[in-house]
Amino acid sequence: MTIRVLLADDQALLRSAFRVLVDSEPDMEVVGEASDGAEAVRLTRDERADVVLMDIRMPGTDGLAATRLITADPGLAHVRVVMLTTFEVDEYVVQSLRAGASGFLGKGAEPEELLNAIRIAAGGEALLSPAATKGLIAKFLAQGDGSDEERDPARAERLDALTGREREVLVQVAGGHSNDEIAERLEVSPLTVKTHVNRAMAKLGARDRAQLVVIAYESGLVRPRVD
């Protein structure tokens, strides 16, 4: 199956470089280019894109607003958005994940990293390495004062639907651990962990693993630590 990729960035030169890279792969193709968020949303629908590489900062409708529009559209439920950030630590990273993005990638990433990111997103996985989860996400969510008022009570209540084991797995996911690592920690099989993760996603209305991480912090199940 060929992965249909849409490029959304206001820099034409960067889009051209991404196009050459993506089109060089036998399992993916660029189906469109957008220079702003509104165009990205329209082309995502028109070109039936599977993965959108979305720049956060664009004129007019920015990448964050465009991501919200894409992920809120039931007709685009299969689409995965990977946010492109100028810096590895971007102030909008967590907002992007809350908007429904499946992950983020720095523009300074190596070509193989970019191609791997597209494949991971297309496969329905979250583009969040354990290191990224533990370091970046916790750091951004810790920018507030950590008070209970900042937690989402609605999401906290939804955690009641989880079994004890699903809660344990969710805590491990939010801690930046892979399924194999969680399996070893909880002394179960990786397949069992994957099943618990999928059930937690369904119960919490999460699109993917990235959304689980955000929910775990926003609900107060996991408290971010700043080293």
Automatic annotation (TrEMBL):
Record PTM 4-aspartylphosphate, positions in chain = D55
Could you tell me the superkingdom of the organism this chain comes from?
Bacteria
Q: Which UniProt keywords apply?
A: DNA-binding, Phosphoprotein, Transcription, Transcription regulation
Ranges that cross the membrane: none
Q: Does the keyword Zinc feature in the UniProt annotation? A: no
Q: Which GO terms describe its molecular function?
A: DNA binding
Q: What Gene3D superfamilies does the entry give?
A: 3.40.50.2300
InterPro entries the record matches = CheY-like_superfamily (IPR011006), NreC/VraR/RcsB-like_REC (IPR058245), Sig_transdc_resp-reg_C-effctor (IPR016032), Sig_transdc_resp-reg_receiver (IPR001789), Tscrpt_reg_LuxR_C (IPR000792), WalR-like (IPR039420)
**GO process annotations (BP):** phosphorelay signal transduction system; regulation of DNA-templated transcription
Record-annotated HTH luxR-type domain positions: 155-220
Q: Which residues form the Response regulatory domain?
A: 4-122
Q: List the PANTHER family.
A: TRANSCRIPTIONAL REGULATORY PROTEIN NARL-RELATED, TWO-COMPONENT RESPONSE REGULATOR
What protein name is recorded for this chain?
DNA-binding response regulator
Q: Which organism is it from?
A: Streptomyces albiflavescens
